[in-house]
Design brief:
With about 450 residues, the protein is mainly β. About 5% of the residues lie in helices and about 50% in strands. It has one helix and 40 strands. It has a 26-stranded parallel β-sheet that branches. A five-stranded mixed β-sheet has the order 18-20-21-24-23, with no helix packed on it. A three-stranded parallel β-sheet has the order 31-34-37, with no helix packed on it. The longest helix is centred in the first third of the chain and has 13 residues, at about 15-25. The radius of gyration is 23 Å and the shape is globular. It starts with a strand and ends with a strand. The relative contact order is 0.08.
Length: about 450
C-alpha cells in the first residue's frame, strides 16, 4: 500500500498540488491510502488505470475548486480508457474507490461536444467512468450535488457495484448507460432529479454510448422526502433509430446508423429541425455536414436499446412524486427517443419486490415503452396505479403487457389500478393479495382481467 501523503498530498495544500499528488500515486496503480484529516482541495481530474484502489481515510474530505486552467473543469475521478474509446483498446479493470467524502462546492465539469484532455462527450459525472470492467464504488457520500452533473456516471461497463452511498443534491445520484451485471445497494438519496437513472438511451450530452442495460439488482435504497422534485425514483430509458438516408429530418440528439457506425446530432436543444443530405463518415469525434454537427458514438449496426432483467428490491419511497418508476421515452427538444417508423425495443424482465410507499405517489409505474411483463411482488401499494401510455410517434407499435401483482398489500380506494391508453393492450392478474376493506380496484382501456383475488372490475 502507498500513502498519498508520500506524493505530497495533504489538507491545506494548493488544489493543484493535491491533484498532481493523487495522479502521481494513481499512475503507479495498486492500493493507495489517501490519508489526512480535514478538507483537502483538488482542481483537476484524477485518471485511474487498471488494478487501482483509492481508499480514503475516515475524517478526510475532498473539496472541488475550479480548474487551474480557466473554463476547463473536468471530473473528480475518472478512468484512463475513457479517453481512448475511439481506439477500441482494452477496458480498464479492477478499480476500487472506497470511503470518498466529496464536497462539490458548486463546481461542475464542462463536458461539451468536443473531447478534451479532461472530458469526454456525453460523460458528465463527479465520478465518471467509461469502458470499465469490475468497478466498485463503496462508502461514498456527497451532500451538495449541483444541478449540472451526476454524482456517479458509468457507461459501457461490466461488473459494477455501488454500495453504501449517501447522495443529496440537485441532479441524478447514480446514472448508468450501456452495461451489464450490476448492483446498486444500500443507497440513501435526496435528489431533485432521479436518484437512479438507467438510461440506455439518453440525451447526446448525457451518455457517451447507447446500448442495453441488463442483469442488475437495485436494493435497499431510500428516496428521502424533500421540498421539491422532478423526475422519478428511477427512469428506465429506451430508444430506437434507423439508417441514415438522404433528405431525412433530424434534430438535436437524433441517432442514425451509417456504414456500420452510430452517429448522433449534437446541436442546440431548441426544436430546430435540420435536413441531412450528406452522410456522416468520420471515424472519431464531431464533424459538421450540411450545417449539422454529428458525433460519432460507436461502431456497429445498433438500432435500439433498453433495459432488461432488472430487479428493484426493498425500495423505500418517502418523497411525494407524480411517478415512482418510469419506463421512459423522451420526446422533447433535448431528445426524441423514437425516430419515426423505427422499431421500438421491448423492455423485459422487470421485477418490483417489496416496494414500500410512505410518500404520495399517484402513479407507481408509467410505461411509455413496450414492455413484456411487469411483476410487482410483496409490495405495499397505497392509492396508486400502473399506467401504460402511447408515445404517439409514427410507426409506433405495442404488444400486450402482462401485469402481475403477487402477494401485494393494497390500501386506499384502488380506483384506476391499471389504466391503458389506446394501442396499449394489457392483461392483469393478482395472487395472494391483501386488499383493504374499501379497496375496489378498476381497470380501463384495452385491458383483459385475468385470474385475481382483489375483485378487479372494468371502469364504467
Amino acid at each position: 500500500m502507498r500513502f498519498a501523503s508520500e506524493f505530497g498530498f495533504a489538507p491545506g495544500n494548493a488544489p493543484a498540488v493535491n491533484s498532481a499528488a493523487l495522479q502521481a500515486a494513481a499512475d503507479l496503480g495498486g492500493e493507495i491510502f489517501v490519508d489526512g484529516h480535514g478538507i483537502a482541495e483538488v482542481c483537476e481530474p484524477v485518471r485511474l488505470g487498471s488494478d487501482t484502489t483509492l481508499r480514503f481515510e475516515n475524517g478526510l474530505y475532498l473539496r472541488r475548486t475550479e480548474s487551474s486552467t480557466p473554463d476547463n473543469n473536468g471530473y473528480v475521478l475518472t478512468n484512463q480508457s475513457a479517453f481512448t474509446a475511439w481506439e477500441n483498446g482494452p477496458w480498464d479493470r479492477h478499480i476500487r474507490i472506497i470511503g470518498l467524502r466529496l464536497i462539490c462546492n458548486a463546481v461542475h465539469c464542462l463536458s461539451g461536444g468536443v473531447q478534451t484532455e479532461k472530458t469526454v462527450p456525453g460523460l458528465r459525472g463527479m465520478l465518471a467512468f467509461y469502458r470499465v470492467n469490475d468497478l466498485v464504488i463503496e462508502d461514498f457520500e456527497t451532500f451538495d450535488l449541483p444541478p449540472e452533473d451526476f454524482a456517479i456516471h458509468v457507461c459501457t461497463f461490466e461488473n459494477l457495484r455501488v454500495e453504501n452511498v449517501r447522495i443529496e443534491g440537485r441532479k441524478d445520484a447514480v446514472h448508468l448507460g450501456r452495461g451489464s451485471k450490476f448492483v446498486i445497494r444500500h443507497g440513501i438519496f435526496r435528489t431533485f432529479d432521479d436518484p437512479i437513472a438507467l438510461n440506455a438511451h439518453d440525451y447526446a450530452s448525457s451518455n457517451p454510448e447507447l446500448g442495453w442495460i441488463e442483469d442488475g439488482i437495485i436494493e435497499d435504497c431510500w428516496d428521502l422526502d424533500d421540498k421539491d422534485t422532478t423526475g422519478f425514483f428511477c427512469r428506465v430509458l429506451a430508444g430506437s433509430w434507423c439508417d441514415w438516408r438522404s433528405g431525412m429530418q433530424v434534430q438535436h440528439s437524433d441517432t442514425v446508423v451509417y456504414d456500420h457506425k452510430v452517429y448522433r446530432v449534437y446541436m442546440k436543444p431548441d426544436h430546430t429541425v435540420y435536413t441531412s443530405v450528406t452522410p456522416p463518415t468520420h471515424a472519431h469525434g464531431i464533424k459538421e455536414y450540411d450545417g449539422i454537427r454529428w458525433l460519432m458514438v460507436e461502431e456497429g449496426d445498433i438500432y435500439s436499446c433498453g433495459c432488461r432483467n432488472i430487479v428493484f428490491r426493498d425500495i423505500h419511497l418517502q418523497k411525494n412524486r407524480p411517478v415512482a418508476f418510469s419506463l421512459h421515452f423522451d420526446k422533447d427538444n433535448w431528445s426524441r427517443s423514437v425516430y419515426p417508423n423505427s422499431v421500438m425495443p421491448v423492455q423485459s424482465g422487470l421485477t418490483f419486490e417489496n416496494i414500500e410507499m410512505s410518500g404520495k405517489i399517484g402513479t407507481f409505474l408509467w410505461a411509455a415503452t413496450p414492455v413484456d411483463t411487469v411483476r410487482i411482488t410483496r409490495s405495499t401499494l397505497d392509492s396508486t396505479s400502473v399506467r401504460l401510455g402511447n408515445i404517439s410517434t409514427e410507426g409506433a407499435e405495442y404488444g400486450r403487457t402482462e401485469i402481475i401483482f403477487d402477494g401485494c398489500t393494497f390500501r386506499g380506494t384502488g380506483d384506476g389500478l391499471v389504466q391503458t391508453h389506446p394501442g396499449r393492450p394489457a392483461r392483469v392478474r393478482a395472487y395472494a393479495s391483501c386488499p383493504a376493506d374499501d379497496f375496489a380496484p378498476t381497470v380501463s382501456g384495452e385491458t383483459v382481467i385475468g385470474e385475481n383475488d382483489i375483485g378487479l372490475k372494468f371502469f364504467k
